[in-house]
Amino acid sequence: MSARHEIPRTARARAFASFAAGAGGRLLHLAALLTGEPPGDTPYARRLLTAALARAYADWDALRGDDPYDRARQDLVARYARAAWHRRLGATGREPDTGPLAPLTPHERVAVVLRLYEGVPEGQAAALLGLPVERIRALTARAAVRLAVPPGGGPDASEPAR
Fold first, then answer.
1. How many CA atoms lie within 13 A of 112 on its CB side?
2. Percent of the chain whose predicted confidence (pLDDT) is above 70
3. Cα–Cα dist 38/77, whole Å
4. Please, which pLDDT band fits residue 155 given cuts at 50, 70 and 90?
5. Which residues have a Cβ under 8 Å from the Cβ of 73 and sit 6 or more positions away?
6. Are 48 and 35 in contact (CB under 8 A)?
7. What is the helix (H) or strand (E) element at residue 91, kind and residue range?
8. Cα(86)–Cα(58) distance, rounded to whole angstroms?
9. Helix (H) or strand (E) segment spanning residue 140
10. Around Cβ 158, how many Cβ atoms within 10 Å?
């Protein structure tokens, strides 16, 4: 390879390394929220992050003004959603999720993390997941209700409803 080709690759690698160093922690936290793994032990979240960053690096030259964080987040969420759909989160041999988002289905979890943690607008979240905006609203509302009700059904599950 000639020296002429090494300079852009080096600059590209430095720019990507700077991006990965700055956004990697936040993307790993996002992945850990999605997977429900405990903070110190996140092998699945790290695999999702590695794949998303590898894709971002491969597409780095094609970004042309697009936000690399948005592209990496989009890829990470899509990978999680695809895997959750195929695995149905339970037949994986992994420990059951005990985190704060444990009561949520994978779609509810993605909707909550995108809308409430990441602050992604409804329309953008709907486009990212390929769902109508109304479905995102319903998923977010249902998830909020499920998270607000403590395990066991309510304030005092022993009392009959009137």
1. 23
2. 78
3. 18
4. low
5. 27, 30, 52, 118
6. yes
7. none
8. 25
9. helix 133-148
10. 7
Structure tokens at 70: 């948005």
- pLDDT tens per residue, range 18-64: 999 999 999 999 999 998 887 788 899 999 999 999 999 999 888 87
Which token pair is 137?
């609203």
Average predicted confidence (pLDDT) for the chain = 82
User: Contact at 8 Å (CB) between 77 and 110?
Assistant: yes
Residue closest to 108 by CA, chosen among 131, 91, 86: 131
Q: Are residues 124 and 156 in contact, defined by beta-carbon separation less than 8 angstroms?
A: no
**Other Cβ atoms within 10 Å of 53 Cβ, number:** 21
Tokens standing for residue 143: 């998830």
Q: Is the pLDDT of residue 153 over 80?
A: no
- Identity of the residue numbered 48: L
In three-state secondary structure terms, 95 is coil
Question: Is a pLDDT exceeding 90 seen at residue 136?
Answer: yes
The pLDDT score that the predictor gives to residue 93 is 53
Residues 77, 113: Cα–Cα separation, whole Å: 10
Measured distance CA(42)–CA(93) in Å, rounded: 15
φ, ψ (nearest 5 deg) of residue 41: -130, 90
- Structure tokens given for 149: 């009700």
- Record the tokens describing residue 60, joined without a space: 């780095």
